[in-house]
Structures are given as C-alpha cells and as structure tokens.
Amino acid sequence: MFRSWFVVLCLGCSVVDDRLESIGRVEESDLREISGIVASPSEKERFWVHNDSGNPAEISLIGRKGKVHRTVKAPFVNIDWEDIAVDANGRLYLGDIGNNRAILPLRAIHRFAEPEGKKIEAVETCRYGFGTGMRFDCESLFVIGDFVHLISKRLDGRPAVVYRLRFDPKATLVEPAIPERLGELERFVEPATGADLSRDGRRLAVCAESVTRIYEPDASPSGWKLIGEIRYGARRIEAIAWDGDDLLLTDEPGRLFRIEKKEWSKPIPAVTSGQRLP
Predict the structure, then answer these.
(1) What proportion of the chain, given as a percentage, has pLDDT over 90?
(2) Cα angle: 108, vertex 142, 34; to 5 degrees
(3) What does the pLDDT look like over 252-269, one tens digit per residue?
(4) How far is 97 from 144, CA to CA, in rounded Å?
(5) What one-character DSSP code corresponds to residue 102?
(6) How does strand 107-113 pair with strand 124-128?
(7) Are 143 and 86 in contact (CB under 8 A)?
(8) CA-to-CA distance for 90 and 26, rounded, in angstroms?
(9) Whole-structure pTM over 0.85, yes or no?
(10) 238, 217 in Cβ contact below 8 A?
C-alpha cells in the first residue's frame, strides 16, 4: 500500500528510478569528451565513439566494457561533433550538428563506409541550413532510409522537436538542405543529448543527462509514441546505443552503463487527472 501511494504522489516530481548498471570505463585518455556512440554494423559487441568539439577529428572502436581496439582519423574537421548513427546498409553517419546558442547558420552530416583500417575513405557530406526562425541546437541523430532525423536540444522546458532531411551529397554551403519539422517528441522536455534507432527500426532511444525514454513508430506528427522511461539522477549522460535488446550509455568522461530490456520495457506508471508530468 505504501509503495502504491508513493508512486502516485511522486508522478508529478522528478522521480529517480535508477536502473543503470555500471559496466566499465573507456580506457583511452584521449577519449575525454565522448558525445556519440553506435554499435558497429559488422563487429559484434563493439561500438564506434567520438569526442565532442575541441578534440582531434577521430573515431574509435571500443568494446562493451571500454577497451579501445583502434582509432581512425577522419578527413574532415571536428567543429561540433555530437552524434553518430548507422543506416540499413551499414554506413556510418557522423553528425557535426551541435549549435550552441543556435548561432551557426549551417551544419553538416558526413556519411562513409565503416572503416576497416586507420583511415576513413570516400566521405559524402550533406550540408544543411535552417528556415526562417528555425535554427536549433542538436546532439541527436538517427537514420531511416534516405532520411537523417535530428532531435533538437532545448533548454527552455519545451518538448524536443523531431526534424528530418534527405541526405543529399549535393547539398552544399551555397545550396544547403533544409530540415523538415515533423513534431514534438512526447514528454521529452529535458535537453536531449543522444539518440539511437534499433537495428530493426522498431525502437528509438533518446537520452538526456538524467533520463532515457524509449519510443516506437506511430502516426503522431513526430512519428513516435512513448513506451518506456528510465530516470537515473544527474549522470552527465551524453550518448546512447542499442546493444541487442539492451541499451549502452556513456557519459563524457567515458563511464559505460547498461539498461537491460527487462528494465526499459517496464510499463510507465499511469498519470491521473490533475497530475503534472515531470
């Protein structure tokens, strides 16, 4: 009885539902500001990660517990790298999409085959700009078909917005692509710091420093319906990736955490009339 009343009373506040399991730490000292992670499309139990701005233009392949297997140099500048994704063909997309205070008029997404050696080859780049009054900061991307999806990072308590743009290597600095606004992401009012789409396309995970939410496709404007939520207190979580049916998260210092399927798939407590969502 006490537990039931506790859940009801706390639905309107920021409840810490700590289901993060600490599993390791990235061993490489140069990986000190990790901002993106995605499962390797070809190497089991390995993940590509990268640093934020102000660091060398490199991506690194790590194991689930943080062992660095190799580091690969990129032939493009790290202005503000924020996320990395993979498409159905196994190509990687590196998002130079950060836009602090929304001051940059153009951003870029780089696409390339998963590197086998120590150098990225044959890069395609799609430049994008913004419509009038649409400029936004972003730290999260995922890919569906020919479209890259971006999730805005808001600091004003309003829900994050999902945008999409067709990846077009012909979109240049002179004629950039313009993202299409789809809609607000249900209940995601925290600043979104990372996202990842499951390999089968049926689950989208979006993280913030203190919460992760899971979505599935639906007919809403954003295209996504909330099905799971895990709160874990302020852990400075910056990036998230699917690891099979589980989730792998990392913070900037490189600590690695896991959320098992049995945890993220638990039902979200119902909200009754008059209660305020956290």
Answers:
(1) 78
(2) 70
(3) 889 999 999 999 998 886
(4) 17
(5) G
(6) antiparallel
(7) yes
(8) 24
(9) yes
(10) no
